[in-house]
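Friendly challenge for the regulars: who can give me the structure tokens for this chain first? No prize, just bragging rights.
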Amino acid sequence: VGMSVMLARGNAADPVAAEKAARAFTYESLFKLGNDPILRGEQAAQAASKVAAIPAVREILLKFQQDFAANPPDGKPGTVLDGRDIGTVICPQAPVKIYVTASDEVRAQRRFKELQGRAENVTYATVLNELKERDARDANRSTAPAKPASDAVILDTSNMTADQAFAEALKIAEAKLKQS
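First reply, four minutes later:
Bragging rights claimed.
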């Protein structure tokens, strides 16, 4: 939704533009944008954080996200959702909740390398500062602040490779599913 506003040359913090984009959001637009590398850029991350703070946008997207989780596309048996309030707001009854985290410095270094790999002109200091600003904005918003669900398993990936983090998340999910 944030990128939809930005692509329409709007301001992601504008509640009117953000609500309009949220109301126009469909599965088709999700899959059309879903593979666009622009969604992995810093501009998209900042725009997402800004529209996420707008209560009307959150309300509109809540049902969309819950429907997506309950009715996976193409008859798939389940979904994996990524977001800062998935376990607390979107799918509080999910059988497996993993809150993936890492230190600010590690997250900023990973993001910096990712953005450099796409030839984006950024500095580590800027990435770290923007990450901290986004975290503060998301943690302190009045609607659905970003925090782990009380029954989530915290997975600190600060000292893990991507493959190690995936293997650990899979192990956690398998153990949780065996318990239920």
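The first strand starts at residue 98 and ends at 101. The mean pLDDT is 89. Your move, everyone else.
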